[in-house]
Amino acid sequence: MTINTYIMPIFKKTVSSPVDFDSNRFAQAAVALQLAPVSNDSEIEPHDHRKGQLIMSLHGAVSCKVPNALWLVPPQHALWIPGGTTHSCHVTQNARTCFLFVEPDASEMPRNCCTVAITPLVRELILYLSEQEPSYAAESKTARLVAVLLEQLSDAAVKELYLPISDDPRIRYIADTLFADPSNRTTLRQWAEQLATSERSLARLVKSDTGLSFGRWRQQLHLMIALNKLAEGQSVQSVAGTLGYDSVNAFITMFKKSLGKSPTQYFSSLR
């Protein structure tokens, strides 16, 4: 049997939303599907699955809200969401996304949400699985490949590409305002005045609820927005302007301090 025959697609599952695919119908260790590209940004309403879910970005970016956090899935990464976790997703224009649903206890995956780096092998195995009939037999070739996929996936490197967001309405208000206008440079003191509290009390609240200082938290928010827009294909100069940086160099410095590479180097390494 040739390699080309071996990987020939049998059944392609491509839908416009993962909620259109009922993964609970299948008892197999893992099943996968591809999300059809959309012409505009799309929002997937809050929902949950009995199975754990891995959201893999092939092109563009996906952001996902879970309780108390916003996670980003840049290209060549994936977000792991344990079974039973309520989440909603935002998919950028023309993004290509793949979903892997994993049966509980089928793999030693983290108990909490996390972003993981995807190796070329894991990527190809997930893509292969997305083209197979989901009700594959337990002793089939597909089942054997799934066993390899889950073993490789459990060793994936974890990345901290998320923004902690508290349920406190004051922090939610600040987050919503900054997402609507990332160039907003309102100081902590000014936020405190708007929210009728003291600067010290607000600083303590942000630190206790997010684990970050206000300055570090806002920088992480900027990083999330930057990664999303860069993944869409926007230029570094355009993103720096959107975030309100005085210069492109200042933005690059922030990005490099956070991820260890400049934006160009970071996305080149993903490719």
From TrEMBL:
InterPro entries in the cross-refs: AraC-bd, Homeodomain-like_sf, HTH_AraC, RmlC-like_jellyroll, RmlC_Cupin_sf
Source organism, top-level taxon: Bacteria
Keyword Metal-binding: no
UniProt-listed Pfam families: AraC_binding (PF02311), HTH_18 (PF12833)
Keyword Transport part of the UniProt annotation: no
Keyword entries, A-Z: DNA-binding, Transcription, Transcription regulation
PROSITE patterns (alphabetical): HTH_ARAC_FAMILY_2
HTH araC/xylS-type domain location: 172-269
UniProt name for this protein: Helix-turn-helix transcriptional regulator
